[in-house]
Structure formats: structure tokens, C-alpha cells
Amino acid sequence: MVGTKDSNAFKRIALITNSEARKVAETLNRLIAYLQSCKIDFILDECSSALIEQLGADKAGLPGMKDDNFDAGCDLAIAIGGDGTMLKAAHLACLHDIPLLGINRGRLGFLADIPADALEEYLKPIFAGTFVEEERFLLHVEVLRDGQSIFKSSALNDVILHKWNIAKLVEFETYVDNNFVHRQRSDGLIISTPTGSTAYALSGGGPILHPSLDALVLVPICPHTLTNRPIVIDGNSLVEIVVGTREIDQARLTCDGDIETELAPGDRIRVQKKDKKVRLIHPKDHDHFSTLRAKLQWGTEVC
Q1: What is the pTM of this model?
Q2: What structural domains does the chain harbor?
Q3: Given 45, 83, 113, 256, which residue is catalytic?
């Protein structure tokens, strides 16, 4: 759901980073100075506290937090970095039902849409309550082995079954709502949300899904049978994958490119929509197609 919400200025903001890059540290320092000038309370995650030290800045009196105390009375989270940082922050923000805003210091930055060189200009109206809030759904994933749950996680972008040995394929069967879809030998399978459709799924030949769509896309990774193509399914579907690869530790499962587990023959992977959603904050004039044009260079003139 997309909507505009007017409110008073945010009272306390959690600042999140996920990189030791100097440009991230400099943007963090600039943001802290702006928040102090606006008299807005804030708190630093562990990585942000370390970055302040890296700059040689005095962090005396700057409050810090650990991930297990993420909310700490905050009503907004700001992530500084690229989409990887936004994914990390999204899981924390979703857990505590806190809206999330991104300042881009990465490469493409589909999720972080505030430019670092003009953060004050963009943040001023947002802090005054003029912004667009958008909800994105996540995926819940569980791995069953001999009927017992051995792994649970969640993903905003994608859940990926992939091979571990570069010279071998993985084998698996796919079911959607208990209906058999296909048996496949490939490098793996991407189960992507609309949010993740501009990430790994896109490079695998999958379609770009508008973030408002209630849909998932299944994208084979280098399938041995070329007729296996990406499939768009209902967002409320239950996707089940049964690992058929014979060797132990031949296949692995990765959530949002970070959380990973080893798979064994016969393991059953269950993926479905998560109950909670992540709330993203955008500037009032945010437009998804403008983002696509800018990030994918669709506006470049054809000679």
C-alpha cells in the first residue's frame, strides 16, 4: 500500500550502516551534524559507532545500540549505504515496525533513494512530515529435513537455491500450492519478491515487477533445459522445493545474499509471504519509473 502521511517531526532516529568505506563515514558524520542542528534525537548502531571513531571524531555523548535493542524508542530508521545496507536495516525495521529511509552511498541503490550530496534538502520536508510511505512484503523461508525444521529465515529481495560446487548442477523439484511445476537440473533457482526483481532475478532474465504487485517470480539459474523460463505466480502462493541432488553439501540456500544454510538430499524448502511488512519512506515526489530510468539508464538518448 502506498500513501502520503503527514505528521510531526520524527522524535528519535536509528542510524544504520554496514560498511567501513570512508564515503559512508563522511555521510554519517554529515547526517549527525544535520540531526543535531534540527534538535532531533538519534542513536547509532554498532557499525556507525565504529565509523565515527574511524573519522577521528569525538563520539562522547553519542548514544549507541546493539541490534537486539534496535528500536530503543525510535520512530524512524535511516540507513546509509547501498541496497545491501538497506536489506540489513529492513529486517531490523520490520521486526520492530519502524519505517525505513535510505541515503544512497552504494552503486545502484534501488531502495536507498536520498542522494548523499543533497541529504539536507531531501530530509527537511520528510522531517516536517511530508513524504510517501510504502509497504513491501517479505518472504518467510523454512527448511525441513526428515519432517523436522532445521532452518528459518526471511528475505526482502530473494531466496536462492544454488549450487556450491562450480562444476556441478543441482537437481530439484518445484511445487506451487502443492501442484507439481517442474523437475530441473540447473545452477539453482531464484524466488524473488517484486522488490528483488531488479536484483539477481533481473540478471537471470526475470521480469521487473512493480513493487505494488502481489506476486512472486521463479527464475531458473542457467537451466540445463532451455525451455525452463521465469514464471510469475500469485504472491500468496506456497512454493516448495525438494532437493534431489545426491551429494551432501552440493546445494545451499541463501536469503538476501547473506544468510545461508547447507542443504542435503531430500530437504524440503518452503517459501511463502511473511506476515509482517517493511515500511519504506520516500520523498513526496517519489516515482518508481523515474527510479528505473535513472538506475537502468533508460533515459539515455539512442544515437
Answers
A1: 0.90
A2: 2-131+283-296 (3.40.50.10330), 138-275 (2.60.200.30)
A3: 83
